[in-house]
Amino acid sequence: MEDIRPYYRAMRRSIGRAIHAERQKQNISLWKIEQHTGLSSWQVDHIELGKGELKIDQLLRLARFLGLEVKLRLQKRH
Predict the structure, then answer these.
(1) 31: which residues sit within 8 A by CB, 6+ positions away?
(2) Between vectors from CA 68 to CA 50 and to CA 11, what angle results, nearest 5°?
(3) Any idea what the Cα angle at residue 41 is, between residues 37 and 46, rounded to 5°?
(4) Using one digit for the tens of pLDDT, what is the confidence trace for 52-77?
(5) Domain spans in the chain, listed from the N-terminal domain onward
(6) Long-range contact pairs involving 20-27 (C-beta distance under 8 Å, separation at least 24)
């Protein structure tokens, strides 16, 4: 069975970078996100850094607050 951890880490980092970039673009503080999403600033910081487990409900709360659309794209590997 193939080890999926490297793919999962890469996915978390990619999502975290996108969230961080959008937060910076909109000039939104971690404190403001904490107040509006119920996620603590350290949770958001860890998500942006691609650390730890990213839960779908956390992703959806962040995306909704930032005005981002979450799309899932599955494609066959070559």
Answers:
(1) 41
(2) 25
(3) 105
(4) 888 999 999 999 999 999 887 777 87
(5) 5-66
(6) 20/48, 22/66, 22/68, 23/48, 23/66, 26/66
Report d(CA 8, CA 56) in Å as an integer: 13
Place of tokens 């799309």: 71
pLDDT over threshold 90, residue 28: yes
Domain 5-66: top CATH class: mainly alpha
- DSSP string of the chain? ----HHHHHHHHHHHHHHHHHHHHHTT--HHHHHHHHS--HHHHHHHHHT-S---HHHHHHHHHHHTPPP--------
Quote the tokens at residue 14: 């990619």
